[in-house]
Amino acid sequence: MELTKENIRKLRGLILFTAVVVVCLWKYEASLEILSFVWGVIFPFILGGAIAFVLNVPMNFVQRNLFPEERLEKSKTMKKLARPVSMLIVLFSVIAVIGLVMFVLIPQLGNTFSNLGRNIQAFIPQVQQEWRIIMSGTNNNYEQNKTQNSQNSNNQNFNNADNNQKNCKNSTNNSTNNSTKNNNNNNNN
After folding, report:
1. Which SS3 state, helix, strand or coil, does residue 45 take?
2. pLDDT at residue 188 above 80?
3. Taking Cα atoms as reference points, which of 57, 46, 49 lies closest to residue 90?
4. CA distance linking residue 55 with residue 100, whole number of Å
5. Reduced to 3 states, what is the DSSP secondary structure of residue 189?
6. Rounded-to-integer distance, Cα 185 and Cα 181, Å
7. Are 42 and 49 in contact (CB under 8 A)?
8. Is 53 helix (H, G, I), strand (E, B) or coil?
């Protein structure tokens, strides 16, 4: 890579950008504070631009229909007032639509939330009762299983003790029989 003036400028810009990114990542709390401050300053302008962009279309429509070009050519005052009057008409229309929606929608939302609150109050005891039934069934099953397991364990211990006693008797009998056989064999010899 040749070190021309253009390449040096690109490298300088790349190094500066990398340094800014490293500092922003290293001091991210300060970076976020700066960004929030900048956003607080810029936000009203962005909001105003968005509102102007949205209201421009109906404002042009009102201006074209209420103040046609033929009328505007005849009077200079009409030409000067066409845009502001169109803007006021659109603003009042939008405010009226928002107010109408709010007066129709807010009472409905209030009724919906009050009905929801009543339904939740009626629903909670039902859920608690179902939960108790489920948990009592689970506890009963748990207690039954625990009782069965302890009984099975006791039965197994009893059976093991019986088997141990039988095995002891058998081994005693076998050893007695073997010693008797050995004595008989010794006597025969």
Report:
1. helix
2. no
3. 57
4. 18
5. coil
6. 6
7. no
8. helix
Q: Tell me the C-alpha distance between 113 and 105, whole Å.
A: 12
- Helix, strand and coil content of the chain, in percent to the nearest 5, comes to 95, 0, 5
User: Could you give the angle at the alpha carbon of 49 between the alpha carbons of 44 and 55, nearest 5°?
Assistant: 125
CA distance linking residue 8 with residue 176, whole number of Å: 108
Q: What is the pLDDT of residues 124-136, one digit of tens each?
A: 888 888 888 888 8
Per-residue H/E/C for 85-150: HHHHHHHHHHHHHHHHHHHHHHHHHHHHHHHHHHHHHHHHHHHHHHHHHHHHHHHHHHHHHHHHHH
Would you state the pLDDT for residue 168?
54
Distances (CA, A) of 141 to 88, 127, 136, 146: 74, 21, 8, 8
| Stated pTM of the model | 0.44
Rounded Cα–Cα distance for residues 88 and 139 (Å): 71
Confidence at 159, pLDDT banded by 50, 70, 90? low
Which band of pLDDT confidence, cut at 50, 70 and 90, is reported for residue 189? very low
20-64, pLDDT tens digit by residue?
889 888 888 888 898 899 999 999 999 999 999 999 999 999 888
